[in-house]
Specification:
Layout: H1 3-11, E1 18-23, E2 29-35, H2 38-43, H3 53-61, E3 64-69, H4 73-87, E4 103-106, E5 114-117, E6 126-128, H5 134-147, H6 159-163, H7 171-174, H8 188-202, H9 207-222, H10 226-246, E7 256-263, E8 267-276, E9 279-289, H11 296-310, E10 317-319, E11 331-333, H12 338-365, H13 367-381, E12 390-399, E13 402-412, E14 415-416, E15 422-425, H14 434-451, E16 459-463, H15 466-478, E17 486-491, E18 496-499, E19 502-507, H16 513-546, H17 554-564, H18 567-572, H19 575-582, H20 584-596
Parallel strand pairs: 7-10, 10-11, 12-16, 16-17
Antiparallel strand pairs: 1-2, 1-3, 4-5, 4-6, 7-8, 8-9, 12-13, 13-14, 13-15, 17-18, 18-19
């Protein structure tokens, strides 16, 4: 179908909220999206030039447009989420409907059991979770078992069976882990009170259990039953210790979902915290792979629906980093200060840590993906037209104008290529003139690369501020390369990034990977230049001392240094030792020379 036909389809869509679906000519679903206004949103794909390459490719493949009109924006959000999970369209953010998370079940039975499970059975039982870690489940079950003795057998404890004495108490009763409900030694009401307390504990409300145990401890103390009071005191300590580990904010902050997002060119990471009575009762980070040029607003909106569905959250209040629509009857807050902002910051920190861990894993398991992400990030951060796969960095080195040298280091795909490093003796500049030296070196480097038809870099970095950058630009202009290679300067004091013809420097985030690579390039150029400069000075000092001896040439100097390793050892060497290396005639000249020097 022609592009005009697809445009015609989009122009006839209704001005209503709903979900649109793009199909290719084989009838395969390519993309699912939501919109407050279907006609306006879908038409935007065809009425303007798309900046993102993947979006342009998607538009080319669209053959058929289908849509579903819904009543509200909330319905559109939910429907989009469900369709993406069901069909996993190629150009949508990847959502996985993971049904293997563990739950804690309170079984629908007389004298209910409490246990972990990965299967939800619709028999009236209550399920709490899902939890993202079995460690969390075990911690909670251990806490419950230490506070409330419950049965773990699967007997049918009906009134009739208990009255008929069908079952006998087991070892768990004698160990104190069960109170013998199977023989009628524990009343149903007492057991139900324990289940009610467990239900509150799983919801994150520890206050009810603490108040109950404190009241019990006081009664036992008043009746002088100190052993029982001590056992209750131990349970209070367990609860308070658990509460101290989990409480991070004001306990008045209750039933709140917190969401934050951190993203890069290809992936987004959404962290979800659920807060109950000031405690984090759930934390989960979702990794979402971008397929088009999705922004953080749209991704977070989609992720909120997904996470709330997945974890069956019914919280009516959410904290987010920016304003968005999350559904009907949900209060959205964008905290700016105070405890609420601290919770949001904590969520963002969790997302960043998760992202960092994924980067470390990917660097080991998939180095190509790691390189691609770094290059895309640098292109974006430095506002470049191309990814800087090949970067060269220049630095000058001299002491008061003596022995002026320069260094050029080469990085490819963010990694140093030491075999391609180059060092330069400054030939045309007299005295300490960094600007002129930089102009000379840059010209010589790229003049040679052009002559030898070597591939040019995508980015040049000059160690220095505006002056060195301007000097380098002169050389690029002479070679007709200005505008063909991106060039920046970095000033060390404030890590300012300077651009040609732009008086305002760029300041990168101090923790950004882009700045880290630039600093690595700059430091490597400085190290390489300083090393070359020191070697040159040392060689010059040696040559000055030895080559000034009448009758001693360069070849003899090399033989002496090769054998004795240093000038100091040559001075200390005796006539016989020297004669063995360079012959008695030249050895006499060396010994005589050093004897004359005080």
């Amino acid at each position: 179908m022609s592009n005009s036909s697809v445009r015609l389809q989009s122009s006839t869509l209704p001005d209503k909220p709903g979900v649109y679906q793009y199909y290719d000519k084989e009838g395969k679903l390519l993309y699912v999206g939501k919109a407050n206004n279907l006609k306006k949103r879908v038409s935007s794909y065809f009425n303007k030039q798309q900046d993102n390459g993947r979006t342009r490719l998607l538009v080319k493949k669209i053959h058929t447009i289908k849509h579903i009109v819904v009543a509200t924006e909330t319905d559109a959000l939910l429907l989009e989420n469900n369709l993406i999970k069901k069909y996993q369209p190629r150009y949508n953010v990847m959502l996985k409907d993971d049904k293997t998370y563990p739950w804690i079940c309170i079984k629908n039975e007389r004298f209910p059991r409490v246990f972990s499970t990965r299967r939800m059975i619709k028999d009236g039982s209550e399920y709490f979770g899902p939890y993202t870690s079995m460690k969390t489940v075990h911690t909670l079950l251990d806490l419950i078992n230490s506070l409330y003795p419950l049965r773990n057998c699967n007997y049918d404890l009906s009134e009739k069976n208990i009255a008929n004495e069908k079952y006998k108490i087991c070892l768990e009763y004698h160990l104190g882990n069960c109170l013998g409900a199977c023989e009628g030694l524990q009343s149903e009401s007492d057991y139900t009170n324990s289940i009610d307390a467990i239900r509150q504990l799983l919801k994150g409300n520890l206050k009810a259990s603490l108040d109950h145990f404190k009241k019990e401890m006081k009664l036992f103390s008043t009746d002088l039953q100190f052993e029982k009071a001590q056992r209750i005191k131990e349970k209070i300590d367990v609860l308070e210790n658990y509460q101290a580990k989990s409480t991070i904010v004001n306990p008045k902050i209750n039933n709140v979902d917190v969401f934050s997002i951190v993203s890069d060119e290809d992936y987004a990471y959404v962290n979800y915290l659920q807060i109950s009575f000031g405690a984090i009762i759930r934390s989960h980070t979702l990794e979402l792979r971008k397929k088009l040029d999705e922004n953080d607003h749209d991704i977070l909106q989609l992720a909120i629906i997904e996470l709330r569905q997945r974890f069956q959250s019914e919280c009516k209040e959410i904290y987010v980093p920016f304003d968005l629509y999350a559904g009907e009857n949900i209060n959205v807050h964008v905290p700016k200060a105070g405890e609420k902002k601290k919770i949001l910051d904590l969520s963002e920190r969790n997302a960043k840590y998760f992202r960092m861990e994924r980067f470390k894993q990917v660097k080991i398991t998939d180095p190509n993906r790691h390189e691609n992400r770094i290059m895309a990030q640098m292109k974006n951060d430095l506002r470049l037209n191309k990814e800087p796969r090949h970067i060269e960095c220049f630095d000058n080195s001299n002491i008061h104008g003596t022995n002026p040298v320069a260094a050029c280091v080469v990085f490819k795909n963010g990694k140093p290529q030491k075999k391609e490093y180059r060092k330069f003796n400054i030939k045309t500049v007299e005295g300490p003139d960094d600007y002129a030296s930089m102009e000379e070196v840059v010209y010589r480097r790229y003049k040679r690369m052009l002559n030898e038809k070597q591939p040019l870099p995508q980015l040049i970095i000059i160690d220095g501020g505006k002056g060195q950058l301007s000097s380098s630009l002169k050389s690029l202009e002479k070679l007709d390369l200005r505008g063909k290679i991106a060039i920046i300067g970095i000033a060390k004091r404030l890590e300012e990034i300077f651009y040609p013809d732009d008086p305002i420097p760029l300041y990168l985030d101090k923790r950004s990977e882009t700045l880290r690579i630039i600093q690595q390039l700059r430091n490597e150029a400085h190290r390489f230049g300083i090393s070359f400069h020191r070697n040159k000075r040392s060689k010059e000092a040696l040559n000055t001392s030895l080559e000034t001896i009448p009758g001693i040439g360069e070849k003899t100097v090399i033989e002496l240094l090769k054998h004795f390793k240093s000038l100091k050892r040559i001075k200390k060497a005796g006539f016989d030792d020297l004669a063995e290396v360079i012959g008695s005639n030249r050895a006499r000249k060396v010994v005589t020379h050093f004897q004359q020097i005080p």
